Amino acid sequence: MKTYIVGNWKLNFTVGESSIYLHKLMKALPNYRDIEMVVAPSFLALQPLSLQIDRHKMKLASQNGFYRDYGAFTGEVSFSQLRGIVDYAIIGHSERRHILGEDDKMIAKKIAAAVRNRIRPILCVGETESERAFGETADVIRDQLLGGLSEIGDDDLDKVLIAYEPVWAISSTKAAKLASPEEISEVVKLIRETIHEVYGKKIAEEMPVLFGGSVKPSNAGSYLITEGVDGLLVGGASLILSEFVDIINTAKRVKA
Ligand code: PEP
After folding, report:
1. What are the residue ranges spanned by the domains of the chain?
2. DSSP code per residue over the chain
């Protein structure tokens, strides 16, 4: 299986800055055939970057997308508009769940819309600090996982990637708030067991599961060797060229 390294730029970089960064990023990296390198710029930058990117080397993801293909939905961008521009879409990121109020029902419709438009969804799941403290992690992950996948047919499951992102470990500056490989492997195991139970062994084994939560060059290696982890979703460190390049090179080294 390929190793996936996805850079989530969030609400950062102008279109010009995105273009310059992408240029430097592509120049700094060789063509790694076993590493799927993906960046997720703002909606505005996606179209120009799709003309600039070398798709043999790197792919584009959107950070979101709407569940209807067209119509009276002011301010939204549909997956049908993103079709052909991006290969992946981040869906259900914790910032969208907790700041923008997206629920599993809406996320499920977005996953279906992405798949319908030939875009591979990266379904983000993760518990908050208090959910973990109250022993609710397993229930939360199960609900988000099965809720998010509820609108697609079994034939489309092989297009989906899962990103486990504990909310308490995102954008953390404190060592105590970093997820340990043990904590990650426990939840990744639960994700695969849940998929196995509902959809069968093959899809559970083959579905890529990424980890995200304050990934840096210093911890990327230990996360990448964590059992069941097939890649990383990187926020803050993906905005710093040297760090993102370092993380991708670490993936190449560790997964070789
Ligand atoms: C993210 O937003 O998906 C993320 C993991 O961010 P960070 O790496 O900054 O914690």
Report:
1. 3-255
2. --EEEEEE--S---HHHHHHHHHHHHHHS---TTEEEEEE--HHHHHHHHHHS-TTTEEEEES--BSSSSSS-TT--BHHHHBTTBSEEEES-HHHHHTS---HHHHHHHHHHHHHTT-EEEEEE---HHHHHTT-HHHHHHHHHHHHTTTS-GGGGGG-EEEE--GGGTT--SGGGSPPHHHHHHHHHHHHHHHHHHH-HHHHHHS-EEEESS--HHHHHHHHTSTT--EEEESGGGGSHHHHHHHHHHHHHHH-
Q: Atom of ligand 1 at shortest distance to CA of 95?
A: 2
For ligand 1, atom 6: residue with the closest CA: 235
The atom number, within ligand 1, closest to the CA of 215 reads: 8
Instruction: Please state, for a pLDDT cut of 90, what percent of the chain lies above it.
Output: 96
Interval between CA 109 and ligand 1 midpoint (Å): 24
Closest residue to atom 7 of ligand 1, CA basis: 235
Whether pLDDT at 21 is above 90: yes
Is 93 assigned a catalytic role? yes
pLDDT digits (tens, 9 = 90+) for 24-59: 999 999 999 999 999 999 999 999 999 999 999 999
pLDDT of residue 255: 85
Which CATH superfamily, name and number, covers 3-255? Answer: Aldolase class I (3.20.20.70)
